[in-house]
Structures are given as structure tokens and as C-alpha cells.
Predict the 3D structure of the following.
Amino acid sequence: GETSFEMSRQIRSHVRGLTSDGRHNFRRKKDLARYTHYRVMRAAGLTHDNPDEEVDRRGFVTPLTEMQDTSNLPRSPLHRRFFFPHTLSYKVYWGPPSVQDDPNAYEGSMVGCTVAARLEDLPLTQQQKERLVDIVGPECVDENTGVVALEADMFPDRNHNAAILGDMWEKLLREAAQPTPADPPE
């Protein structure tokens, strides 16, 4: 860390830059305030730019970092992730301002996303579709319409929930397409 004398000397040199007539030395008051705040926080060890950090975080995995490493997202909004018709929907809570700490606590504080697709639109054989229904369970399938729906509310952000749903669909389709040991090879 820097001593208070070195910090004050650096601040004085920045203030001199404000009063000089040079074009490249011009700094605004808010720039100085931000830089001074950063230097104080860095001296207190409260910034994340310490190159000599003693903790090795390479093996630290959270659900979000795991999803970032394993996800297979489209390259752009013009590219599709799945080539069968499906819908993506999410909940949005609208209402007047509330004095409660968590006005949506009864509905859950996360933003839930749902992806639904018809079984007949999936690129699977009839036997694979039956296996898919066995994997997800009957509560996720509407027997009248043949629609399979998956829901995720693991993250507070709907984009993260939508991404994890896409990963879940990919893994589900791969699992359903794999032959079971009782299935004869085709």
C-alpha cells in the first residue's frame, strides 16, 4: 500500500494538472473524486485488482460459472439454438409500490422461466419420446396437447434461467436419444 504522504503528493500533482494549460492534463473534479475513492479502497484492500492475491480461485465453481463453462449459446440473435418450434416465457411482477420487504414472497423472489414444446415437433422416435416423458415425469407433460414444459428459477436473472433451460433441454434430448441397455441396437 501507499503511505498517506505518497497519496497526498499524487493528488497534488493531479490538482496541478487541472490548473495547467496543457490539453492532455485536463481532469474533471469527478474524475479526481473517483480516482481518490479507488485509491483509498485499494489501500484498504477492498478492490479486486490485487495481483498478489494469495487465494487460488481457479477451482472455485458456482452454479453461474459452471453454466458459463458448459453452456452452448447461439452465436447471435439471428441464430437458433433449437430447430423445433418451442416457446419461452417468464414471469414479470407488476404492481404498486409496496411497504413490504418482499411483496412477491408468496410467489417466489426469483424470476421463473418456462420452455414448452410439443412432443410431435421434437426430432425423436416414438420410443425416444416415451423415454423423454419417463425422464421428465407426467407432471411436466400435458396428455391432451402433448406439450412438454420445463421451468427454471435457479437464478434471479431471467437470462440466466433461460440459458439453464436451454442446457436442460439439450441434455434431456441427448439422454432421451441414447439407447437404454434393454433396447436392441438399431
